[in-house]
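Researcher: Let's try something more involved. This one mixes different molecule types, so please make sure each is placed in the same coordinate frame as the others.
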Amino acid sequence: MSADPFLADPFVEPRAINGRAPDVFKPGAWLEMSQYDDNDEVDFVVVGTGAGGGPLIARLAEQGFSVVGFDAGAYFRPLEDFASDEIEQQKLYWLDERIIDGANPIRMGGKNSGKAVGGSTVHFAMVSLRFRPEWFKSRSQLGYGADWPLDWREMWDYYRRAEKALSISGPVNYPWGPHRPRYPYRAHELNGAAEILARGAEAMGYKWTATPLATVSAPHGDSPPCVYRGFCRFGCSTNAKQSQLVTFIPRGIAAGAEIRDLAMVGRIDTGPDGRATGVHYHRQGRWRFQKARNIIVAGYAIETPRLLLASANDRYPDGLANSSGLVGKNLMTQANQAVFGVMDQEVRWNKGPPSLSITEHWNYNDNKDFHGGYCWMAQGPLPVEWASIVTGSRKRWGAPLREEMMRYNHQVGLKMVGEMLPDERNRVTLTDEVDQYGLRIPRITYSWGENDKALIQHALGEMHRSMELVGAKDIFRQEDDTNHLAGTAKMGSDARDSVVNADCRSWDIPNLWICDGSIFPTTGGVNPSLTITAISLRTADRIKALANRGEL
Amino acid sequence: MTDRFPGYDVLAKRRTPSWNEPTRQVVNRRLAVPREPRFLTSDLFVVLDAVCQRIVPQPKDRPPVPLAALVDTKLFTNLQDGFRYAEMPDQGEAWRRGLAALDEAANTHYQLGFAKLGGEQQDDVLRRMESGELAGGALGDMPAKLFFEHRVVLDIVTFYYANPTAWSEMGYGGPASPRGYVRIGLDRRDPWEAAEAYEGDDAKARRENGFVG
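Model: All components are placed in one shared frame. Result:
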């Protein structure tokens, strides 16, 4: 993308190659890295290096397995490559074309798809929340969705480990749910937008708290504390953010894992015994084949089913791991509607991480006439995103747009993360168009259900009331936004109605695993990354236990 | 339109710890974008330029943003969005058809090309597209409303608000690495942020904005 030799373009040639990988903490420095031959049958190939793949790469390597992690994206050096710029930093996103349709098409790109070593955690907003315990059994305990084959008490322990590994900054006491230990790092101070959320919540009689965030509030290793520059969703240029790129990936390399950047996996092969044998991947202008004893797919809710479906062969004509017919189905996004208004005070909401305070009131209160929960958080969109909201929700253009944009420093807002319910009609399929690798482009079909609409209207009403109570003026609603993804390779306890078991192992092919947000049977009312990380850590432990018993 | 941040220029911070080297290079490249079209024909580029002036009428007292050139560059370099509505063609084709359709509608209603119309007439044609009234002809099967919302407004507005001129006029701090911010609570301002003019007290704000850096 960049033509400047100074920036040593990360898109032209791979950086993790010839036995070394970038040291993200030191300009121009390198880490020694293992390098495997395509013909080495490695213990594990991991496809994807985000919240699902990253912890597995590190933990499996630390347990002594040979591991190669593939990512289609670039290996960035944040200190040298990251600008404070909303357009330039789109280089972190998966911008390859996907066709969207349905009654409520999901706009893909920055908010839900990363393409980089470290995956979406390089651009995520760092919000690190635990599920409500009942969500792991929402069918039997709350009457909707599906049960997970996981026990919340075990997950509570893996959440703790994930929070420790990512040095999460958060409050001493979290106001909702069963006890959890205090967060490893102190909570960040509140910015103006977060203060407004707190005032509104208190006026409504709801609890609120500083949001647990994966950016450090004090030094950790080579990471300096957050400087509140506010470009979190466009990549952290100081390495305060605890993305996979600066945490588990360097850990994995130190433990002997190899990372291959700019390496797009297009197909998984299976042998005469039906087991997976390796992956075809595109790197440096040609297709190659890496042999492997086990393959873990961690490409998130679009690329994971895309790869499984594209790997269809004579033995598995409907795609790999798809005897249930559920690969690609039950795609879920999360409702991300917002209410905005104008304060007399100067808020300057661009300063600091965008979501410094939160209320999970409606995740833990079941006195409502729809299923699922939601939280809302403070907001701080930068100018390009804010302009897209003002044009999209208020249909402003011309002089009225510029007038409205000049109130930027006084704007304030609340944005929800809301649970949408699984529905088999919401799905990922393959079109006949092909992309730059010659691979079939996915089609993403999405329509909101009646329950989704009821939840959204409830949340909009509540956020609107909160904005009124703090004295915001010229209040308006952003009605159409969605964010995170989940589903498409559901985890379950029965091979007939799920794709993987509780260990993220596919029912159909014992050496094919799936570990990312696509295994979620339900999506809950919080950001998914910490749950993906916790499941990834658990899966690494389960693989070790199975290996010890000779059951791999 | 009154200037709420008189004398504030985000570029005054270009050599301060609020701008790192990658940011300086990115903004330099954007400001130096070639002004001649590289993707659209010169005829369509003239229409695009006229559309840009209506979607974002620019301030007279700040450096103009070359919006048409930036949109053309997006198409030329094929910087994609990450998705495409099933009923839409790819972005280059969409812009070609859409601009031709605006010209077509201008001729139908005013017997002149779009670029030759007065501002109110141009807005009238744009509103016909926004409301979905335009159909067929150069548009083909592309829905006018979706093209207007998703391409015309978003592409143009995005590039305006990715420029120092826009950042300065809205009092936005702009690039912020590695220095970031220290005073982040309500009604707090770091000395390297814009001061707003209240109650017509332009002089005080202008003075403070002279020290931003």
